[in-house]
């Protein structure tokens, strides 16, 4: 079997125009700017308009990503979209995106792994490129969680924002310094009920009662998730470094999922790494689930923090429960 290396060709992102800050939230639920800042590190988040759906944000992020790469539209040979808030339960948001991009006769599918969706999608894309089946895979993490948020539940409604981030996973040339070094994904389905959208599937189809009881919105036992998040992201990152004979001092940038600044700081402390090496933009976007990592990566590349040749470690945790990490030379 042929074997190649995969690399990140480029990144792109997009967030809706409307911004909701903590003071706006004070008017909606019993909360304070001080609580949100100190407990989560968030200040504002972007909110999709009524007419915007996931594929609209995905299209903008994908276009930005493709235009900033050397890859032509016609050379994209697969689309993977990571999302838990797609346009419809079916067809997949990836197929809708394919139509918007005008790309015909290529595989397109969604991946559902909560906030770890982007990491899962990269793990899949990498296999297709490394075994020679594909050369350029468009991977998008997109979420409009604010449309499945219970705006009366202060435990969750202050946390989420909307956005999309995209990358192209391409075959690396022999002369390329850039490559995805390794990936690791994991799950523990026994804890799924702590972070769940209860209604709308075959277990509990939509009914007047399910709508009245707000069961189509995100339910989360935040403090149970919190405990697992640091432990799991540390474990998969540590294993990736060990099995590639690298130490944390070899890593130039860590891009963690942006769910809570305290989780990010806890992870940095456990990894014994300075926060100056950690990419954080949670104060501007909140938790955009599967979009946080590509959104943060795109910003950091555009701000010239992350440069070609840097070793980057991406790590995430989310519904499932799922978690995973990616080690790459950008
Ligand atoms: N404003 C004011 N008070 C609040 C708010 C709020 N918005 N939300 C909760 N509180 C109160 C609670 O009612 C509770 O009050 P009590 O002590 O009187 O009962 C108190 O604050 C503490 O509540 P906790 O839930 O224990 O707060 P915690 O410090 O754990 O922070 C948070 C909550 C931010 C949700 C945190 O647990 C967290 O970040 N969890 C992890 C989230 C995560 O990583 N999710 C995975 C990805 S999401 C995905 O996959 C879709």
Word description of this protein:
The protein is built from eleven helices and 13 strands. The chain is of the alpha/beta class and 330 residues long. The protein folds into two domains: 6-171, Thiolase/Chalcone synthase (Peroxisomal Thiolase, Chain A, domain 1); 179-329, Peroxisomal Thiolase, Chain A, domain 1 (3-Layer(aba) Sandwich), CATH 3.40.47. A five-stranded mixed beta sheet has the order 1-7-6-4-5, sandwiched between helices. A four-stranded mixed beta sheet has the order 8-13-12-11, with helices on both faces. A two-stranded antiparallel sheet has the order 2-3. The longest helix has 22 residues, at 222-243. Acetyl coenzyme *A is lined by residues 31, 35-36, 39-40, 114-115, 154-155, 158, 195, 222-223, 225-226, 229, 259-260, 263, 287, 289, 317-319. Acetyl coenzyme *A binds at residues 31, 35-36, 39-40, 114-115, 154-155, 158, 195, 222-223, 225-226, 229, 259-260, 263, 287, 289, 317-319.
Helices and strands, with pairings:
Elements: E1 6-14, E2 19-21, H1 22-26, H2 33-40, E3 44-46, H3 54-67, E4 78-82, H4 93-101, E5 108-111, H5 117-130, E6 136-144, H6 154-157, E7 162-171, E8 179-187, E9 195-197, H7 208-212, E10 218-220, H8 222-243, E11 253-256, H9 261-271, H10 282-285, H11 292-302, E12 311-318, E13 322-329
Helix pairs in contact: 3-4, 8-9
This protein binds acetyl coenzyme *A (ACO).
């Amino acid at each position: 079997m042929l074997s190649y290396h995969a690399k990140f060709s480029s990144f792109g992102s997009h967030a809706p125009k409307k911004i909701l800050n903590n003071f706006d939230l004070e008017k909606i639920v019993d909360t304070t700017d001080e609580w949100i800042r100190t407990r989560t590190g968030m200040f504002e988040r972007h909110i999709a308009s009524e007419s915007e759906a996931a594929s609209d944000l995905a299209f903008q992020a994908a276009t930005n990503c493709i235009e900033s790469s050397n890859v032509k539209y016609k050379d994209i040979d697969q689309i993977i979209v990571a999302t838990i808030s797609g346009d419809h339960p079916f067809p997949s948001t990836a197929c809708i995106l394919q139509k918007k991009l005008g790309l015909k006769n290529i595989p397109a599918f969604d991946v559902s792994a909560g906030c770890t969706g982007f990491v899962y999608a990269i793990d899949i894309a990498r296999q297709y490129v490394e075994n020679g089946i594909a050369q350029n895979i468009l991977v998008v993490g997109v979420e409009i969680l604010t449309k499945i948020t219970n705006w009366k539940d202060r435990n969750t409604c202050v946390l989420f924002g909307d956005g999309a981030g995209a990358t192209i996973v391409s075959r690396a040339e022999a002369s390329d310094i850039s490559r995805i070094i390794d990936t690791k994904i994991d799950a523990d389905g026994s804890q799924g009920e702590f972070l769940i959208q209860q209604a709308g599937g075959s277990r509990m189809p939509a009914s007047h009662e399910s709508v009245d009881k707000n069961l189509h919105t995100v339910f989360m036992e935040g403090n149970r998730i919190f405990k697992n998040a640091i432990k799991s992201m540390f474990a998969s990152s540590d294993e990736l470094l060990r099995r590639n004979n690298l130490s944390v001092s070899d890593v130039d940038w860590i891009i963690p999922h942006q769910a809570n600044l305290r989780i990010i700081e806890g992870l940095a402390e456990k990894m014994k790494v300075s926060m100056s090496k950690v990419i954080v933009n949670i104060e501007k976007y909140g938790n955009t689930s599967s979009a946080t990592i590509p959104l943060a990566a795109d910003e950091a590349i555009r701000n010239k923090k992350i440069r070609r040749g840097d070793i980057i470690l991406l790590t995430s945790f989310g519904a499932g429960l799922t978690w995973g990490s990616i080690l790459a030379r950008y």
